[in-house]
Protein backbone atom coordinates (compact mmCIF):
# COMPACT_ATOMS: atom_id res chain seq x y z
CA UNK A 1 0.00 0.00 0.00
CA UNK A 2 1.33 3.33 -1.07
CA UNK A 3 1.79 6.13 1.41
CA UNK A 4 0.03 9.37 0.57
CA UNK A 5 2.50 12.16 0.15
CA UNK A 6 1.93 15.39 2.06
CA UNK A 7 1.70 18.61 0.12
CA UNK A 8 4.75 20.82 0.27
CA UNK A 9 4.64 23.56 2.85
CA UNK A 10 5.16 26.21 0.25
CA UNK A 11 1.90 25.26 -1.42
CA UNK A 12 0.04 25.73 1.85
CA UNK A 13 1.71 29.11 2.38
CA UNK A 14 0.66 30.23 -1.07
CA UNK A 15 -2.94 29.26 -0.38
CA UNK A 16 -2.89 31.12 2.94
CA UNK A 17 -1.47 34.27 1.35
CA UNK A 18 -4.03 34.13 -1.43
CA UNK A 19 -6.81 34.05 1.16
CA UNK A 20 -5.42 36.97 3.19
CA UNK A 21 -4.34 39.21 0.28
CA UNK A 22 -7.80 40.72 -0.44
CA UNK A 23 -8.18 41.79 3.17
CA UNK A 24 -4.75 43.40 3.19
CA UNK A 25 -5.45 45.27 -0.02
CA UNK A 26 -8.72 46.61 1.34
CA UNK A 27 -7.12 47.97 4.53
CA UNK A 28 -6.28 51.69 4.16
CA UNK A 29 -2.77 52.92 4.98
CA UNK A 30 -2.62 54.91 8.20
CA UNK A 31 -1.58 58.53 7.71
CA UNK A 32 0.03 60.23 10.67
CA UNK A 33 -0.01 63.85 11.75
CA UNK A 34 3.41 65.28 10.87
CA UNK A 35 5.41 68.43 11.59
CA UNK A 36 8.04 69.45 9.04
CA UNK A 37 10.96 69.99 8.53
CA UNK A 38 12.39 66.82 10.02
CA UNK A 39 15.85 68.39 10.50
CA UNK A 40 16.82 71.94 11.52
CA UNK A 41 19.88 73.89 12.67
CA UNK A 42 20.20 74.98 16.32
CA UNK A 43 18.67 78.39 17.08
CA UNK A 44 17.55 78.83 13.47
CA UNK A 45 14.28 80.65 12.64
CA UNK A 46 12.30 77.99 10.76
CA UNK A 47 9.05 77.86 8.80
CA UNK A 48 7.21 74.90 10.36
CA UNK A 49 4.38 73.06 8.59
CA UNK A 50 1.81 70.93 10.43
CA UNK A 51 0.27 68.32 8.09
CA UNK A 52 -3.03 66.91 9.32
CA UNK A 53 -4.78 64.20 7.23
CA UNK A 54 -8.39 63.32 8.10
CA UNK A 55 -9.19 59.60 8.03
CA UNK A 56 -12.59 59.58 9.73
CA UNK A 57 -15.87 60.11 7.90
CA UNK A 58 -16.76 63.04 10.17
CA UNK A 59 -13.55 64.91 9.33
CA UNK A 60 -11.20 66.92 11.55
CA UNK A 61 -12.56 69.79 13.66
CA UNK A 62 -9.79 70.67 16.09
CA UNK A 63 -5.99 70.40 16.37
CA UNK A 64 -3.99 71.16 19.50
CA UNK A 65 -0.22 71.17 19.01
CA UNK A 66 2.03 71.25 22.08
CA UNK A 67 5.08 73.44 21.47
CA UNK A 68 8.31 71.67 22.53
CA UNK A 69 10.53 73.28 25.13
CA UNK A 70 12.85 76.02 23.80
CA UNK A 71 10.89 76.33 20.54
CA UNK A 72 9.84 80.00 20.25
CA UNK A 73 6.96 80.76 17.83
CA UNK A 74 6.74 84.41 16.73
CA UNK A 75 4.53 84.56 13.58
CA UNK A 76 1.59 82.54 12.27
CA UNK A 77 0.10 82.03 8.82
CA UNK A 78 -3.64 82.53 8.51
CA UNK A 79 -5.47 79.36 7.45
CA UNK A 80 -8.81 80.08 5.68
CA UNK A 81 -11.74 78.48 7.48
CA UNK A 82 -9.79 77.96 10.70
CA UNK A 83 -9.35 80.01 13.87
CA UNK A 84 -6.22 80.03 16.00
CA UNK A 85 -5.74 80.40 19.75
CA UNK A 86 -2.57 80.28 21.84
CA UNK A 87 -2.14 78.65 25.24
CA UNK A 88 0.55 80.46 27.20
CA UNK A 89 2.95 79.47 29.98
CA UNK A 90 3.42 81.54 33.11
CA UNK A 91 6.61 83.08 31.67
CA UNK A 92 4.80 84.30 28.55
CA UNK A 93 6.07 81.60 26.18
CA UNK A 94 3.69 79.62 23.95
CA UNK A 95 2.67 76.28 25.45
CA UNK A 96 0.30 75.10 22.70
CA UNK A 97 -1.38 76.24 19.49
CA UNK A 98 -5.05 75.36 18.98
CA UNK A 99 -6.72 75.45 15.55
CA UNK A 100 -10.49 75.05 15.12
CA UNK A 101 -12.24 74.59 11.79
CA UNK A 102 -13.51 71.94 9.42
CA UNK A 103 -11.70 69.46 7.15
CA UNK A 104 -13.49 66.68 5.27
CA UNK A 105 -12.52 63.02 5.52
CA UNK A 106 -10.28 63.15 2.41
CA UNK A 107 -8.85 66.63 3.03
CA UNK A 108 -5.33 67.51 4.18
CA UNK A 109 -5.26 70.48 6.56
CA UNK A 110 -1.98 72.42 6.68
CA UNK A 111 -0.94 74.98 9.29
CA UNK A 112 2.28 77.00 9.15
CA UNK A 113 4.13 79.25 11.56
CA UNK A 114 7.58 80.73 12.17
CA UNK A 115 9.51 79.68 15.27
CA UNK A 116 13.11 79.53 16.43
CA UNK A 117 14.56 76.07 16.94
CA UNK A 118 16.21 75.10 20.25
CA UNK A 119 19.83 76.13 20.72
CA UNK A 120 20.90 72.63 21.77
CA UNK A 121 21.28 69.73 19.36
CA UNK A 122 19.01 66.73 19.90
CA UNK A 123 15.51 65.49 19.07
CA UNK A 124 12.27 67.29 19.88
CA UNK A 125 8.78 65.72 19.86
CA UNK A 126 5.63 67.47 18.62
CA UNK A 127 2.75 66.04 20.66
CA UNK A 128 -0.70 66.78 19.25
CA UNK A 129 -4.40 66.05 19.79
CA UNK A 130 -6.66 65.59 16.75
CA UNK A 131 -10.42 65.82 17.37
CA UNK A 132 -12.97 64.61 14.81
CA UNK A 133 -16.52 65.77 14.12
CA UNK A 134 -18.06 62.95 16.17
CA UNK A 135 -16.05 63.98 19.23
CA UNK A 136 -13.51 61.15 19.03
CA UNK A 137 -9.87 62.08 19.57
CA UNK A 138 -6.53 60.73 18.41
CA UNK A 139 -3.59 61.47 20.71
CA UNK A 140 -0.39 61.74 18.66
CA UNK A 141 1.92 61.50 21.67
CA UNK A 142 3.48 58.03 21.43
CA UNK A 143 6.97 56.78 20.62
CA UNK A 144 8.08 56.46 16.95
CA UNK A 145 7.21 52.73 16.87
CA UNK A 146 3.74 53.16 18.39
CA UNK A 147 0.38 53.26 16.61
CA UNK A 148 0.00 56.99 17.25
CA UNK A 149 3.54 58.43 17.27
CA UNK A 150 4.39 62.05 17.95
CA UNK A 151 6.15 63.72 15.04
CA UNK A 152 9.83 64.40 15.74
CA UNK A 153 12.46 66.88 14.52
CA UNK A 154 16.22 66.47 14.78
CA UNK A 155 18.24 69.56 15.75
CA UNK A 156 21.75 69.21 14.31
CA UNK A 157 24.71 71.49 13.61
CA UNK A 158 25.23 69.70 10.28
CA UNK A 159 21.96 71.10 8.89
CA UNK A 160 22.07 74.32 6.84
CA UNK A 161 20.36 77.33 8.39
CA UNK A 162 17.01 78.37 6.91
CA UNK A 163 16.75 81.85 8.48
CA UNK A 164 13.03 81.99 7.69
CA UNK A 165 11.53 85.44 8.05
CA UNK A 166 14.99 87.04 8.14
CA UNK A 167 15.00 86.98 11.93
CA UNK A 168 18.46 85.43 12.38
CA UNK A 169 21.99 86.38 11.35
CA UNK A 170 23.29 85.03 8.07
CA UNK A 171 25.41 81.92 8.46
CA UNK A 172 29.14 82.19 7.61
CA UNK A 173 30.50 80.26 4.63
CA UNK A 174 31.39 76.61 5.41
CA UNK A 175 34.94 76.20 6.65
CA UNK A 176 35.41 79.89 7.46
CA UNK A 177 35.18 81.52 10.88
CA UNK A 178 32.36 83.96 11.46
CA UNK A 179 34.85 86.84 11.92
CA UNK A 180 35.96 86.44 8.31
CA UNK A 181 32.59 87.71 7.12
CA UNK A 182 33.36 91.10 8.62
CA UNK A 183 36.68 91.57 6.79
CA UNK A 184 35.28 93.30 3.68
CA UNK A 185 33.79 95.99 5.92
CA UNK A 186 37.16 96.77 7.55
CA UNK A 187 38.90 96.83 4.17
CA UNK A 188 36.40 99.34 2.84
CA UNK A 189 36.88 101.56 5.88
CA UNK A 190 40.66 101.43 5.49
CA UNK A 191 40.50 102.42 1.83
CA UNK A 192 38.18 105.30 2.65
CA UNK A 193 40.57 106.56 5.32
CA UNK A 194 43.55 106.41 2.93
CA UNK A 195 41.61 108.34 0.30
CA UNK A 196 40.63 111.00 2.85
CA UNK A 197 44.24 111.43 3.98
CA UNK A 198 45.37 111.76 0.35
CA UNK A 199 42.84 114.56 -0.26
CA UNK A 200 43.97 116.41 2.88
CA UNK A 201 47.62 116.10 1.85
CA UNK A 202 46.84 117.40 -1.65
CA UNK A 203 45.02 120.45 -0.30
CA UNK A 204 47.88 121.20 2.07
CA UNK A 205 50.43 120.97 -0.76
CA UNK A 206 48.43 123.35 -2.95
CA UNK A 207 48.18 125.90 -0.18
CA UNK A 208 51.92 125.68 0.48
CA UNK A 209 52.76 126.37 -3.18
CA UNK A 210 50.42 129.35 -3.54
CA UNK A 211 51.39 131.16 -0.31
CA UNK A 212 54.82 132.61 -1.53
CA UNK A 213 53.26 134.16 -4.62
CA UNK A 214 50.70 135.95 -2.50
CA UNK A 215 53.50 137.35 -0.32
CA UNK A 216 55.29 138.90 -3.35
CA UNK A 217 52.31 140.96 -4.39
CA UNK A 218 52.91 144.73 -3.85
CA UNK A 219 50.97 146.27 -1.07
CA UNK A 220 48.77 149.10 -2.24
CA UNK A 221 48.61 152.02 0.17
CA UNK A 222 45.24 153.65 0.62
Lay out the secondary structure.
Layout: H1 9-26, E1 34-36, E2 39-40, E3 45-53, E4 60-66, E5 72-76, E6 83-88, E7 94-103, E8 108-116, E9 122-126, E10 128-132, E11 137-140, E12 151-155, H2 183-215
Parallel strand pairs: 2-12
Antiparallel strand pairs: 1-3, 3-8, 4-7, 4-10, 5-8, 6-7, 9-12, 10-11
Structure write-up:
- 23% of the residues lie in helices and 32% in strands.
- With 222 residues, it is of the alpha+beta class.
- A hairpin with a 4-residue loop joins strand 10 and strand 11.
- 15% of the residues are buried.
Shape: elongated
Largest sheet: 5 strands, antiparallel
Task: Give me the CATH architecture of the largest domain, please.
Answer: Sandwich
Rg estimate, integer Å: 35 Å
Q: Can you tell me the CATH superfamily of the largest domain?
A: Uncharacterised protein YcnI-like PF07987, DUF1775
Query: What is the strand content?
Result: 25-35%
Q: Which structural category do the helix and sheet elements fall into? A: alpha+beta
Q: Estimate the mean pLDDT confidence.
A: 79
DSSP E strands, number: 12
User: What distance lies between the first and last C-alpha atoms, to the nearest angstrom?
Assistant: 160 Å
Spell the H/E element sequence. Answer: HEEEEEEEEEEEEH
Query: Strand sequence of the main sheet, in spatial order?
Result: 6-7-4-10-11
CATH topology label of the largest domain: Immunoglobulin-like
Assigned CATH class of the largest domain:
Mainly Beta
Segments where pLDDT lies below 50 for 5+ residues?
Answer: 11-29, 170-184
Tally of distinct domains: 2
Into which percent range does the helicity of residues fall? 10-25%
The number of helical segments is 2
Amino acid sequence: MRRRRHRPRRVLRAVALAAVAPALAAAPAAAHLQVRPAQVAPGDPVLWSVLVPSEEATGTRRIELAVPKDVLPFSYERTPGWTRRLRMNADGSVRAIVWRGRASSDELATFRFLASAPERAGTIAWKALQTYGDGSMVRWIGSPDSDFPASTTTVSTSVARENAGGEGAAAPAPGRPQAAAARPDWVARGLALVALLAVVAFIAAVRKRTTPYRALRPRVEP
